[in-house]
Amino acid sequence: MRPRVVLATVLLLALCACARWYTPRQPLPIADVVESSKSGASPSLTIKRIRDSGTTYSLRGSDFAKLKADGVPDPVLDYLQQSFVDDLDLQTRYWVTGEASLGACSFCYPQPVDVDKLESGYGVVPAPPPGYYQAGRPTGTPDWVPYPQKLQTGPPVSLSDIEKMAKDGVPDAQIIDRLNSSPLTHVIGVGGTFTIRTQPVAGLSGAELAQLHEKGISDAVLDTLQGQFLSQFIETERLRYQNIGQGSVMH
Asked: 157-179, pLDDT tens digit by residue?
């Protein structure tokens, strides 16, 4: 065989081998998370499937109660919330420091979700395209997160405050107004005395959101709570990354 023919054959074989070895990464559908939980798989196994797929989900506050009703256990709910927060933390760092860009990589961002239909993913659930640029906010931030924040002049509000308002019969509209005008307490947790993390721990867990629904908090309030929590989390992290090397920032 002529040298050029031999070289072409070798290259073709190498390309075929690479094509068999490499397959584009596919986000894990939210329906698979529910199915894994319903099948009796342990929470750790379900979490491993999500982690191995590299998938995060843009979950609203009310979604966690719906997922729990579908059989998803608390440890998985907590992982879903924490991985979502981790992604927003990463995107905030990229946004502030300008050190990287994920472009239009659809599987690199939290996947849009419709829990009622158990559907997820860009091109499946209506959402701005992946990598869509919006001035003044990190790329990949869901459009339902109210960031940049409006001026918050009210006193701080806690989860126990929300529970008490709901128990006292305060209308949802008033609770939502309070959430939209007041800073939340404990936006970022410490993760325990012996926990070492390179990223902040979500101060509002997935299991807590599901439990609030069980205590009578409406979907509309939970969605507002999640949106405000994420908005305030992004702002806290923006300040942290902006001030790296200029002294510590208190959360």
From this structure: 999 999 999 999 999 999 999 99
